[in-house]
Amino acid sequence: MPFEPLRNDTFLRACLRQATDHTPVWLMRQAGRYLPEYCATRAKAGSFMGLATNVQYATEVTLQPLERYRLDAAILFSDILTVPDAMGLGLSFALGEGPKFAKVVRDEAAVAELAVPDMHKLQYVFDAVTSIRKALGGRVPLIGFSGSPWTLACYMVEGGGSDDYRLVKSLMYSRPDLMHRILAINADAVALYLNTQIEAGAQAVMVFDSWGGVLADGAFQDFSLAYTRRVLAQLKRSHDGAVIPRIVFTKGGGLWLGEMAALDCEVLGLDWTVNLGQARAQVGGAVGGPGKALQGNIDPNVLFAPPEAIAQQVRGVLESFGPPHTDPASVGPTHIFNLGHGISQHTPPEHVSALVETVYAHSRAMRQRR
Q1: Spatial distance between the Cα atoms of 320 and 279, rounded to a whole number of angstroms
Q2: One of 33, 68, 229, 315 is an active-site residue; which one?
Q3: Catalytic-residue membership of 227
Q4: Structural domains of the chain in order of their starting residue, each with its CATH number
Q5: Relative to the CA of 208, which of 15, 88, 99, 233 has its CA 20 to 30 Å away?
Q6: How far is residue 301's CA from residue 175's CA, in Å, rounded to a whole number?
Q7: Active site annotation includes 155
Q8: pTM over 0.90
């Protein structure tokens, strides 16, 4: 399916560790409840799932932040839990509450019923990807995404969000065999899901390991990292002649950054607990050599501060990463500016403008120093 040529490829070039004129910026959960226009569209849709499953509405809200801010990428409007929903677990969202599953996976019988879902059940997602890609008209690239196998398993076992992960960890420690079966099915489902998003028009894909950081050392490697690796091994490296960058974000994963450097992906996302300069030294690589692009990592709560304080914090993050790679003839360390987690629904929209404009201004100024 022909799409219009991409006019702003800054984000994709940074993913591939190529020099850029400014540090590209996009925000996790950039289409969300902090925007009044999003709330208006969600009200028309009647519910979160009504919004996510309606191609027109999903396209509309994906583009809304791009109308306000100079962002360098769009991200598909959807939810990380569409895959277990397609497995028959019955996903729902109550207004003001988190996701809930009608069925949970906590015993042998429930695990035995799990299978990689028929992707036709998720056709609304792929139709939205194609619709958004067309509506973007080449303005910026479109990112597709999924939850990681471990993160999906947390919700599938707990039946929703959790404060202590007691049920999923109890299953993991008491019946590791069942947990490995859940994770293997999830990994194969996520890989197929992301590959189908790529075929529909996604130009990069991101794996959100939102709850990997709740695991103990050792358990993270066995129950999260191993299955993220299984997903990545199955993903398309390119489509329609273009490389498809793969991003892995583990919230709370800074402890294992050295091990994550071996993942077969282009970009590692970092939360706000990680020092960007140290991460660059550890995994960013040298000019002309291999390495990972880094994405992140300002604390989302910075956006509640006054605009000048936001600007100061943004400059601090950019300076923490250090002098940008500027040689167009080679690859080298690159940074994609983002939050360390999703934007809060309580964020003043004008504060996001302060963040984005400071990224543009200061990252350009840093390049002119050289």
Answers
A1: 10
A2: 33
A3: no
A4: 10-296+327-342 (3.20.20.210)
A5: 88
A6: 38
A7: yes
A8: yes
